[in-house]
Design a protein that fits this description.
Strand content: over 45%
Shape: elongated
Distance between the termini: 41 Å
Largest sheet: 7 strands, mixed
Helix content: under 10%
Amino acid sequence: QVQLVESGGGLVQAGGSLRLSCAASGSIFSINAMGWYRQAPGKQRELVASITSAGSTNYADSVKGRFTISRDDTKNTVYLQMDSLKPEDTAVYYCNVEIRIRFITTAYWGQGTQVTVSS
C-alpha cells in the first residue's frame, strides 16, 4: 500500500510564492520519475514540472523561470517551489510519482492541493 500526502497549497497574492510538498510512504522499493500536474476549472489536467531519478527536470513553458521542482530521495518527497505567481496559476495541483514495489512500477496520484492566486 502506498500513500501520497500533499501539502503547501493556499491563497497568495500575485507575485507571491508557495512551496508544495508531496511525501510518499508505504512499501516502496524505489521511486522513478516524480512530477506535478495542475487542473484549473473547465480545463484539462496539464503537466507543470517533472524530475527523473537522475535529477533531470522538465517544465511547462508557462512556468519556466518561475517554478522549481526538486526531490529528496531520503524522504521520498518531491517539492515544487512556485515564485512570481500569477492569477493564471490558480488550479488544483496534483503530484504524480512512479513507484516500484517489488517488480511492478505504478504511477500514483496525490489527493490534490488548491492553489489560488489573487490579482
